[in-house]
User: What shape does this take?
Amino acid sequence: MLATAIIVFREVLEAALIVGIVLAASRGVARRGVWIGAGIGAGVIGSAGVAAGADGIAAAAAGIGQEVFNAAILFAAVAMLGWHNIWMTRHGREITAAANRLGSEVRGGTQPLWALASAVGLAVLREGSEVVLFLYGIAASSDGDAADMVFGGSLGLAGGVLAGGAIYFGLLRIPLRHLFTVTSWLVLLLAAGMASQAAAFLLQADLLPPLGPVLWDTSSLLSERSMLGRVLHTLIGYSAQPAGIQLVFYVATLLVIGSLMWAMNNGAAGAVARRPARDSRPPGPLQEKP
Amino acid sequence: MVRLGAALLIAVLAAFPALAQSPVTIVIRDHQFVPAEVTIPAATKVEISIKNEQNVPAEFESSSLHREKVIGAGATASVFVGPLAAGRYEFYDDFHPATRGFIVVR
Assistant: This one.
C-alpha cells in the first residue's frame, strides 16, 4: 500500500505544487475558487479520458503520439502561464494599489483567471492520466486488491494536496506588496521548466536534436529521483543531466516571457505619470495610480 | 568552462549521428525487463523498442536519459536514445520502480 501511495504522491505532487502557486498568484481575485476548481475538475475528467485513450494516443503519429501530446500540453501550459505573467505586469500594480487602499485583502480583483485555470487543468490532466493508468494497472493485475488501490491512492493524493497546501500557505506569509512579484518569478520559472520538459519529449520522439546529450551531471549531488530533486524539477525545471536542447528551450522561454513582461512594464510605466522610471520591477508595489 | 567546451564539442559531433539500423528490443514480462541489460554503440542514435507483455500498463522511464513513456498492457512502444557517451544508464518502470534495467553504451 505504501508503494502505491508513494507513486501516486509523486504524480500528484507536480500538479499540486502548480495549483498552490496559482492559488497564491490569484490571491484576492473574486471567484478564483470557482475558476481554479473548474480547472482541477476538468483536468481530472480529462485524465480519465486520456487514460482510456492512451493506447490510441500512443499509436498516433507513427508511434510518437504520446510524446507529441505531452509536449503540446506542456507548451499550452507555458503559453497560459506566460500570458498570466504578462497580464499581471500590466495590471498587477492596480491590484496591489487597490489592496493597499482596502487593507490586507484585495477585494473584487478583476484579474481574468481563464489562463491560470487552463494551466492548472493541463497540469492535472498530464499527471492525472498517469495516476489513472497506474491505479487501473493495480486493479487489473492478478494480485491486485481494491483496498491497496483505494487506500494507497487516497494516501498519495492526500500527501500531494498537503504539499500543495504547504507551498500555498508558505507563499501567503509573504507581505502582499511583494507577493505578486514572487509569484510572477515562480510562474516564470515554472513555465521555463515546462518548456524544457516539452523539449525532452520532442527529443525522445526524435523530432529535435539533443545539441549535447548531457550538458552537466549533478545526479550525485542532487538526484532527480530524490524528493528535493523532484520538487525542484517541478518548480524551477531542475535537471540533473540535461540535454542541450532543454537548456535552449528553458532560456528561450525565460527570454520571451521576460522581455514581453519588460515591454509591458515600460508601456505601463509611461501611462502612470507619477511612477519613477528607475523602478522596473514587474508588479511595482506601493505605487498608486493617479 | 572546460565542461561547457566539452559539451559544445559533443554537440557538434552529435549533429550528424549515425542511426543504428534495427531497433533494440526489450520485453517487460512479470515485472522484469528482458533482457535487463542491453548494449548499444556510443555516439549513435538507437531506437529502443519496448514490448509490454503484461496485462497492466508500464511506464518506461530513465532520469539520466530523460525518457518517460507509458506503454499500455500488451502494447509496444519505441523511444530513441543517443547519441550517448560511453557509460551505464539506468531505466525503470515508474509504475513498478523495482523493475529496472540498464543500457550499456560502449
